[in-house]
Amino acid sequence: MSQTKPRSPSTPHRQSQGGKDFRKRVQRSSKHPAATTAPQAASKPRLGNPAAKPCITLKAGREKSLQRRHPWIFSGAIECVDGTPASGDTVAVRDFSGDFLAWAAYNADSQITARVWSWREKDVIDANFFRSRIADALAARKALGLERDSNGMRMIHGESDGLPGLIVDRYGDVLVMQLGSAGPEHWRDTLADILQELCAPVCIYERSDSDGRELEGLPVRSGVLRGALPDKVEVTEHGIRFAVDVAAGQKTGFYLDQRDNRALTGTLAAGRDVLNCFCYTGGFSLYALRGGAKSVLSIDSSQEALQLAQTNVQLNALDAAKAEWQCADVFDALRKLRDQNRKFDLIVLDPPKFAPTAAFAEKASRAYKDINLLGFKLLRPGGLLFTYSCSGGISDDLFQKIIAGAALDAGVDAQIVKKLHAAADHPVLLTFPEGAYLKGLVLRVVG
């Protein structure tokens, strides 16, 4: 997935700087509908007593979302700010009557002015607090037995692990840390020390280099935080080896969230002609090849990504003769395949993020419909379409409606075989539905 994915403030990713570099998430040109501008931030709240302890007081009636345990506080909900908190400082959050609601990380430069650390007034936000939260997140992954399938895993998943703005991914003995908001930025060294203590990696590499950090008023930064980065980093999942570029690859180097969905693709690929669009470093392609696919055509806009994908084929001693790699704009490539009357038995559409928020849903819907319409036209009767959206601004219901419209326009009937989401190391807090960004459908074209 190395074409455009504009990123939301809560999911930090690499800054956009060019259309063919797989190391960077870039915005599409205008011919492919996508978000190009972020909503304007609300006006800043009134300043209160500068001599008081740092505290946010909400406007009357604006405490309801916090009472439902949603961890974000937008600037428009704030009546006043007491004290002189700096970016990342911990502040008390109180309702209009003065009752305590939460402890939160403050950032006057963000539309999301505060992100909740804790709902308990007795908590102290310090190193021990973060050590406990991180230990809980690590224990949750261990309890699920996820290490049986992979040595690559999301160890900390931001708000859903009670650590807003913090992402930590593991690739073997290397940890990659992303700081997407002012709170974890303030505690950067403390967090790195705790991760080193609890996980003992050979390296902690920082990838705080996202567009979202600019919205937070934070500088872009990446590099080694602890230890030394090995010359080669690999991850093995379900027995397949992948080379990972943690310093320059997309996200933190790889798409850990699609682990289980890649495995499912492999179980259904035998004897099929497979098309993998936005293939990045070949995740779905390798599973299809190992699963006995007759042929696999993989398309991505980045030559660098495709080169790494071919390296991954060699790492796993898969049949390279069955694999074809095409560097092209996926929208254009799909149209050419349609015009050539090419047909496939299994198609994967795993495009970049078209809608970081609901404000961009209309334009994003057109882009999703376009590629899925073309996908349906390229499938043989009985063929399978694996289609995904990682856009936080597109709900599950809206995504299904978009795909239904694409099937209708393509003149095909399709059945939903399975609904897909991120792997279990990407948990979703019930009170934070924004964490459920990845959604997918497996559809069968009725003959």
Automatic annotation (TrEMBL):
GO CC annotation terms, alphabetical: cytoplasm
Residue spans of biased composition, Polar residues class: 1-18
Principal cellular location given in the protein's record: cytoplasm
Span list, region Disordered: 1-60
Lyase in keyword set: no
Cellular localisation: Cytoplasm
Keywords carried by this UniProt record: Cytoplasm, Methyltransferase, RNA-binding, rRNA processing, S-adenosyl-L-methionine, Transferase
One annotated GO biological process: methylation
Gene Ontology terms, MF aspect: methyltransferase activity; RNA binding
InterPro entries: PUA (IPR002478), PUA-like_sf (IPR015947), PUA_sf (IPR036974), RlmI-like_PUA (IPR041532), SAM-dep_methyl-trfase (IPR019614), SAM-dependent_MTases_sf (IPR029063)
Biased composition (Basic residues): 22-31
Domain PUA positions: 54-139
Source organism superkingdom: Bacteria
Family in the record: Belongs to the methyltransferase superfamily. RlmI family.
Protein name listed in UniProt: PUA domain-containing protein
Source species of the chain: Sideroxydans lithotrophicus (strain ES-1)
Lineage: Bacteria, Pseudomonadati, Pseudomonadota, Betaproteobacteria, Nitrosomonadales
